[in-house]
């Protein structure tokens, strides 16, 4: 009985995971769809999200 129950739970969890499609969080180009201070604090450089300004040097960043 435990074997059958375990097999059923495994099949259900596998089916639920397989049904979910991956979602891209970052397109590697810009911060489209992102929330937060994308004008002053965050930018994209060489395909990576970095902290800083597009126009000025930021002396430091604070993350909490």
TrEMBL record:
<feature type="domain" description="3-keto-alpha-glucoside-1,2-lyase/3-keto-2-hydroxy-glucal hydratase">
    <location>
        <begin position="22"/>
        <end position="50"/>
    </location>
</feature>
<protein>
    <submittedName>
        <fullName>DUF1080 domain-containing protein</fullName>
    </submittedName>
</protein>
<keyword id="KW-0732">Signal</keyword>
<feature type="signal peptide">
    <location>
        <begin position="1"/>
        <end position="18"/>
    </location>
</feature>
<dbReference type="Pfam" id="PF06439">
    <property type="entry name" value="3keto-disac_hyd"/>
</dbReference>
<dbReference type="InterPro" id="IPR010496">
    <property type="entry name" value="AL/BT2_dom"/>
</dbReference>
């Amino acid at each position: 009985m435990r074997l059958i129950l375990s097999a059923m739970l495994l099949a259900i969890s596998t089916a639920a995971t397989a049904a979910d499609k991956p979602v891209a969080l970052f397109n590697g180009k810009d911060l489209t769809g992102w929330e937060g201070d994308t004008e002053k604090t965050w930018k994209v450089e060489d395909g990576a999200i970095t902290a800083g300004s597009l126009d000025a040097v930021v002396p430091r960043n604070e993350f909490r």
